[in-house]
Amino acid sequence: AIQRTFSIIKPDATRRNLTGKINAKLEEAGLRIIAQKRIHLTQAQAGQFYAVHKERPFFGELVEFMASEPIVVQVLEGEDAIAKNREVMGATNPADAAEGTIRKEFALSIGENSIHGSDGPDTAATEIAFFFSGLELVG
Ligand code: CMP
Fold first, then answer.
1. Which of 41, 65, 92, 106 should be mutated for ligand 1, with most atoms under 8 A from CB?
2. Residues 114/121, Cβ–Cβ less than 8 Å
3. Where along this sequence does the record place binding of ATP (predicted)?
């Protein structure tokens, strides 16, 4: 079925001017970018977005990193978009990511891993609504 998923191009990637290269990978995978904006989160906003991870040892580092520089938030649409996006992103740790994936090609470490993607339909809906209004989704 046609799905929507939420994606973030992270600070390590925007800093290295990789937005276009990452978008090309997403589009080549059959995903359509139906909403996109560049923003700079505060630490409070990053903490709210990643609240599910607040007990994890890396939470502080994650929040600081995500608020360190601009990010690009986007909504992707396509057939099985959630799984397709996770496939083209590759494993969380770039050391484990498959050849040809975004994280294999561009990520620096498990923390500075260039891209975030929703892990399921419920998270996708919540994450999209955190950043976008319905009017901004132009499918
Ligand atoms: P993401 O998909 O954005 O969701 C949570 C993020 O936490 C994850 O990608 C990683 O970038 C980050 N993360 C996971 N494990 C670690 C870790 N051990 N150290 C630092 N960051 C981590």
1. 92
2. no
3. 10, 58, 86, 92, 103, 113
Answer whether 0.90 is exceeded by the pTM: yes
With beta carbons less than 8 A apart as the criterion, state whether 107 and 94 touch. Answer: yes
User: What's the Rg (C-alpha) of the chain?
Assistant: 14
Residue 126 has a CB neighbour count (10 Å cut-off) of 14
- Extract the tokens encoding 102: 């975004």
Is residue 75 within 8 Å of 132, Cβ to Cβ?
A: yes
Query: What is the ipTM metric for this complex?
Result: 0.94
CA of residue 112 to ligand 1 center, whole Å: 8
The per-residue pLDDT for range 8-39, each reduced to its tens digit, is 999 999 999 999 999 999 999 999 999 999 99
Helices within the chain (DSSP H only): 11-15, 19-28, 43-49, 59-66, 81-89, 102-106, 121-131
The pair of three-digit structure tokens given for residue 138, joined into one six-digit string: 């132009």
